[in-house]
Amino acid sequence: MAALHVAGQAITAARWSADDLRDAALVLGTSRGNAAGWLGPWPGRRPFKLMAASNTIHSEPATAISICHGITGPSHVLASGCAAGLDAVGIAMMLVRCGAAPRALAVAVDLPLVPMLLDNYAASGLLTSSFRPDPYADTTSGFIPAEGAAALAIEPGEGGFAQLLHYACNSDAADPVGIPRDGGRTPQLFENLFGPAGDIAAVCPHATGTAVQREADPAMLRRAFPNGGPSLHPLKPLLGHSIGASGLLETVVLCSFLSEGLLPPNLAGLRAPSGFVMPESCLPVSGAVAKTAHGMGGHNALLVISMPLRL
Over 70: is that where the pLDDT of 145 sits? Predict the structure, then answer.
């Protein structure tokens, strides 16, 4: 199972012991749980009758992780669509900050590459008709679907790791499959930033490549940053769109670059929204980095990360 694999990698990298894991929190983000396992052939699916019920519910991946690693602290599963992975990081961060757990493991997984799920996306007009990802070009028509899983170990303290500064979310209550073309309420998430989080040097936008997102992202950015400023570093042109896993997967990539003091490059030749730049080479980090995500139904999420500030 992909979620179980990345959870183990994050735990090993964090050097958490069995005692560390016992009281840790676990927050898992996903759009459809392990639905792919029972909607289509999947060799990793457990065929036992005992698992017939658990194989069809969202909480099964989190249950498997907690049992495998002996995690007995707070456990939550978030299914906020394409924002689920980013929400998992934010909620895990807040659990640590408020003292509900001494540390937390955020995990996200989505495996949508099965015919039934792809047919649903195609019928909604969300899949691209081109293999050239350029999310802000006039010709963009949809996203390239991908599968993904990622995990992030979160604990207070200082060190040579990316630091989580701020998390916020709200909703537009406007559309079942997208955000308003003017960016909806996402700019309001930036209004509540304070201290070092207010100095945003770069943004990793949702940038799916759908027709609505092509207009909504630039409108949101212009409202949030009327004077311009931050460089843009969308990662879906490089990774594809792994739905509920995308927010956390892209956060992990950002953290990896930030640990080297860098911002990730963009694919060559992508069109940048008016008033913003999308550099084609790595840039040195000069401030905090904002990551945005949007779920179907108008759920918006914002995470701000930096180097090397305290959680």
Answer: yes
- Pick the residue with more confidence: 1 or 39? 1
Predicted TM-score (pTM) of the model is 0.92
Residue 188 pLDDT > 90: yes
For residue 290, what pLDDT band results from cuts at 50, 70 and 90? Answer: very high
Answer for the pair 3, 107: CB distance below 8 angstroms, yes or no: yes
In this structure, which CATH number among 3.40.47.10, 3.40.50.620, 3.90.1140.10, 3.40.250.10 belongs to the domain 2-306?
3.40.47.10
Tens of pLDDT, residue by residue over 247-264, are 999 999 999 999 899 999
